[in-house]
Amino acid sequence: MNTSWNALFVRRGALQEGHFRLSSGRHSPTYVQCAKVLEQPEDAERLGKALAVQAPDVGADRVMAPPMGGILIGYEVARALGLPFLFPERDDTGILSLRRGFTLSPGDRVLVVEDVITTGKTTREVLELIRAQGALPVALMALVDRSAEHRVEDLSVHALMRLDIPAYAPEHCPLCVQGIALTKPGSRPVSTHSRG
Ligand code: ZN
Predict the structure, then answer these.
(1) CA distances from 146 to 8, 169, 172 (A)
(2) CA 30–ligand 1 middle distance (angstroms)
(3) Do 108 and 86 form a contact (C-beta atoms < 8 A)?
(4) What are the tens digits of pLDDT across the range 1-32?
(5) How far away, in angstroms, is 172 Cα from ligand 1 center?
(6) What residues make up the domain containing 92?
(7) How far lies 117's CA from each of 83, 92, 99, 142, 150, in Å?
(8) Is residue 147 part of a domain?
(9) How close is the Cα of 21 to the center of ligand 1, in Å?
(10) Which of 13, 80, 14 is nearest to 51 (CA)?
(11) CA of 195 relative to ligand 1 center, distance in Å
């Protein structure tokens, strides 16, 4: 199931091989940037349809995705399922909250969509927000699941691609040992002149 999507990710530069410094500070031979595979609207629509087909039959009545990465694919999944879409935003203190007139009511059944799930930190914040409104998170989907447990709290991750990508502490990184130039994703190799 993964192969054709994997090829699309590679073709669009959304899945890159090399030596990357992740935002966590760890080093990895693979970098995932879903924004690149959503750059072409027709790709985003196809991915949304493919994900929607896998949506578990749990009676979701709306779709929510966290900013920024989840919003495009969340919207496409909502479109494919014919459901309304809403998204939270971080306030000045960094807390996710509903703004722009978006609301949830007790009993609402929410399908949560992400681009990539790694540690599940953002996902847990979204689940907490939904439950705080008395609504129910009923399913969790992602374009890419690179989490260790393939679930967040009591929800399994339904993903188009499941990637088992190693991440090393810098002092134990075999790629550093091999002398491969380290890249900070989205920019040039950090070992050369930085443009900031
Ligand atoms: Zn390294």
Answers:
(1) 17, 17, 21
(2) 11
(3) no
(4) 467 899 999 999 999 999 999 878 899 999 99
(5) 8
(6) 40-163
(7) 22, 24, 24, 7, 9
(8) yes
(9) 7
(10) 80
(11) 21
Instruction: Label the pairing between strands 109-117 and 89-90.
Output: unpaired
From the CA of 148, how far away is ligand 1's center (Å)? Answer: 21
Residue with tokens 């091989």: 17
C-alpha 119/C-alpha 173 separation (Å) is: 20
Q: Taking the CA of residue 37 as centre, how many other CA atoms within 13 Å lie in the half-sphere pointing to its CB?
A: 28
User: In CATH, what number is assigned to the domain containing residue 84?
Assistant: 3.40.50.2020
Q: Residue 188 C-alpha to ligand 1 middle, in angstroms?
A: 15
* H helices present in the chain, as ranges: 2-11, 34-37, 41-53, 69-81, 121-132, 174-177
- The model's pLDDT over 24-37, given as tens digits with 9 standing for 90+, comes to 889 999 999 999 99
Structural domain contains residue 56: yes
